[in-house]
Amino acid sequence: MKRQPQGSIAGTLIRVGLASGLLILATAANAARPGGELGVDWGDPRGQECVDCHMIESPGLYLEWNSSQHGQAGVTCLDCHQAKEGEIDAFKHEDALISIVVTPKDCSTCHKTEFEEMDGSHHAKAGQILASLDNLLGEVVGGPAAVNAGCKQCHGGELEFITEGKDKGRPTPGTWPNTGIGRVNPDGSLGSCTACHGRHRFSRAQARTPDTCGKCHVGPDHPQIEIYNESKHGIIYRAKVDEMNLESDKWVAGVDYSAAPTCATCHMSAGPGIGKTHNVGERISWTLRPPISTKINLVRLENGQEFDVPEGKEIPKVGDAAKDSTVIEVLTWKDRRAKMEAVCFGCHSTSVIEGHYKQFDDVVDLYNEKFAKPIAAVMDELKTAGYITPAPFDEKIEWVWWEIWHHEGRRARHGASMNGPDYTWWHGIYDVSKNTYFEWIPELKEVVHKKDGNEDFADAMLKKHFASNEGHDWYFNGMSTEQLDNVRKGFEARYGKGSMK
After folding, report:
1. What is the mean pLDDT of residues 214-237?
2. Euclidean distance between CA atoms 344 and 265, whole angstroms
């Protein structure tokens, strides 16, 4: 329907009609509200004025809000959007001082536990991408506009506000809208609750669906939603979504639903013997993001922050001073894995869980030992010896290595972690192998030859870092007769003798 100007007769009639219809809906809904009669259950009486106006001016927002638990509990627009004098994001609207931005700190007024679990977590720190190679690639090679509308919409960026004139206190168009999970807010808090709980419904059912996580966990370098969809978990979820009981208050895996897990099930939600958490990384025992994966221990501090310590590094003890605070809890990678396994036990037996982790660990070890560690070592020696510059992304070999670990290697590792066979092999280790042997090694030789006029340094590097791993023997010495015979016998057993010629 074409929007009519608010001052027109047609526009007025439309607004009156909407108001009448919505008032009927609101009146009916009031019977279910704790306060009963319209206006009785609100705190600040101006909150009711917000509701009355937005019911007409923003009927879509009103209906979303009124359908939410917030709406039914009497939490009004003003309860979430109210601001204080002097805050950079505050501006006068009607007779109230409000902010467009609702931060996790605002939500903590009522949701203290959830805020504390989220604050300091991997999600809250997602905005740190702004100081990473990913951001350098986006800002310099791509361009700031792409980062603004791309990277920051998932990771979050620092919000900026107009400081003068009639629009003072409103966020700048260049930084808003933004619901990035690690958004840097004007009150110092990090994150955006609406990244997962879409405003203004704030639906827990919606937050529990894989598609919510798939908004950001998607694509060539972190295709978790694609992997989930191809996994047995994802297949059964789609088939049995009506049995998932997504609106349940407690939503305990194996108790309130048993068809399949979602992302939230494994990383955040409750299982038999384990409670829910808004710390999405608490149950993760490997880091699958960097060039080389390590198992990670978690250190929690008294100031609410936390950090990971890779396996093999010294772990602070409870009571130790660390990062301008005091250590209050340490979870080893085994503790973190045990938390994840506790959820798995809601639906699976020990043999299934142990078998999964064995297969997962083996793939990560394969990627690390056969490909990532040798290539990373050679790249370091190339820089030390002056064959490539210290600057990233100015030589082709750096781009090839980037895609091997940042794209293909991540896909292989995530595929194994979430039972996605196609991503483990064809989009993962297969691509890692192909591009190591037929992109990276040739480029290594080209880089060295360009400077030395020969390939001696490259050959020495390959001998030093690759030849000791028998997995590369086929490349340097050819496949053995035994290997070829095994393939031939298997092929002929399936398709008939002589069919492999």
Report:
1. 97
2. 9
Spatial contact of 251 and 274, defined as CB atoms under 8 Å apart: no
Question: Strand 96-98 vs strand 306-310: parallel, antiparallel, or unpaired?
Answer: unpaired
Q: What is the pLDDT of residues 263-304, one digit of tens each?
A: 999 999 999 999 999 999 999 999 999 999 999 999 999 999
Rounded to an integer, what distance in angstroms lies between the CA atom of residue 404 and that of residue 179? Answer: 30
User: Residue 424 — φ and ψ, nearest 5°?
Assistant: -65, -40
Q: How far apart are CA 501 and CA 336, in angstroms?
A: 51
Q: What is the pLDDT of residues 384-437, one digit of tens each?
A: 999 999 999 999 999 999 999 999 999 999 999 999 999 999 999 999 999 999
> Do 276 and 255 form a contact (C-beta atoms < 8 A)?
no
First to last CA, the chain: 66
Residue 16's H or E segment, with its range, is helix 9-30
Distance CA 326, CA 192 (A): 27
Q: Which two tokens stand for residue 484?
A: 């070829």
Q: Report the distance separating Cα 50 and Cα 59, nearest Å.
A: 12
8 Å CB contact between 147 and 123 = no
Residues 6+ apart with CB under 8 A from 339: 274, 282, 283, 331
CA gap 433, 477 in Å, rounded = 16
Tokens of 473: 């023997």
* Residue with the two structure tokens 């101006």: 46
Using CA atoms, how far apart are residues 206 and 246, in angstroms rounded to an integer?
8
**pLDDT tens-place string over residues 114-168:** 999 999 899 999 998 877 899 899 999 999 999 999 999 999 999 999 999 999 9
